[in-house]
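Postdoc handover notes: sequence design on the structure in folder B. Input tokens:
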């Protein structure tokens, strides 16, 4: 932002912190779900694929609503 001539003010920093927090929180939830499936006896690859498929379905319905 400095290179393009913008200043980093408090509101911009707040937005960056909130966006980073949301991404990290979502990643933690996904990893906890995969870890739970692995503890239930599922292979790591199968647990990851199942979580990925469920996540894709949720995002599809989120964006398909008008």
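Designed sequence:
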């Amino acid at each position: 932002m400095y290179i393009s001539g913008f200043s980093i003010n408090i509101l911009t920093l707040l937005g960056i912190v909130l966006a980073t927090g949301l991404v990290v929180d979502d990643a933690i939830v996904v990893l906890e779900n995969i870890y739970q499936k692995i503890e239930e006896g599922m292979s790591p690859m199968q647990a990851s694929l199942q979580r990925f498929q469920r996540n894709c379905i949720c995002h599809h319905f989120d964006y398909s609503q008008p």
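Context for whoever picks this up: Helices lie at 10-39, 44-64. Don't rerun without checking with the PI first.
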